Amino acid sequence: MSTVVGVVVFPGTNCEMDAVEAVNGLGGTGRLLWHGDDDLSGVDAVIVPGGFAHGDYLRPGAIARFSPAMAAVARFAVDGGPVLGICNGFQVLTEAGLLPGALQKNRGLKFLCRPTTVRVETTESSLTGSAVAGAELSIPINHFEGNYTCDMSTLQQLRDEDRIVLRYVGNPNGSIDDIAGICNEARNVVGLMPHPERACSELLGSTDGEVLIRSLLAAAA
After folding, report:
1. CATH number at residue 88
2. Domain range spanning residue 138?
3. CA Rg, the chain, in Å?
4. pTM for this one?
5. Which of 1, 38, 87, 199 is the most exposed place for a label (fewest CB within 10 A)?
């Protein structure tokens, strides 16, 4: 029986089918979950995908965090379930308090949509358990507010607890300490700005995202 990954859909989400396709292509089963439902339907893992939830009105993720599905995601995470937030999903997870810090406008105030290189900093997370520490991956970015920020005490905690999951090699957006992705203390909730689901096929230019999605499936299994 394949691992079922629920992909939460908000009004304005536009990467849900990319996530489902990546999961299905690697042997899992992607299942769309409507943001207005408070039942995750027994999924084994959750992806909060990219896009513009609720049009990013107010600020990215600030409205989405109040959706009934996010209360269910929070309960799922507390119980140890693997949760991945990609791009707008990362923003939602920070707004929901499932991850520390915040995402602000890119340095230079420009929307960025291009391949970028990230380095795996730890294999102790639900996103990188099958990866190799130090490996460099080509993963695309697609964001305007992807500049990760936090206070210095939070940054020190992330460093001390080995919770910086991915760093940019050549920081594209001004993120503090070159951070591209982080995890929570339990290491089952991960957020990142790059899109691994868009790097799971040679047709898309890279398969480097496969190891990350495989890691999520393995953590769920």
Report:
1. 3.40.50.880
2. 4-220
3. 15
4. 0.97
5. 1
